[in-house]
Amino acid sequence: MSEEPETSSRRGGGVTPDSLLHSGAEGEFTAEDLVLASGRDVNPKNLAWAERRMAEKGRAALDELLP
Which residue stretches belong to region Disordered (predicted)? Predict the structure, then answer.
């Protein structure tokens, strides 16, 4: 069986290697990122919600939403 490089993209429904999967939570994130991760629309009300959640929970706010 031949192995493909991890950087190649396969359109046939292949499996993405674990080394390429990441949530992005290990870096900086914005209120907009938190809103999108929650599945909500980006609007002033939801951005305010995200900013409050980020102030309360910090990085955990995003970690809780991502698998």
Answer: 1-26
- In the chain, the amino acid numbered 6 is E
Global confidence as pTM = 0.61
Q: Which is it for the CA torsion 12, 18, 19, 24, positive or negative?
A: positive
How far is it, in rounded angstroms, from Cα 19 to Cα 35? 26
Compute how many other C-beta atoms are within 10 angstroms of the C-beta atom of residue 48: 12
- Burial (Cβ within 10 Å: 0-12, 13-18, ≥19) of residue 66: exposed
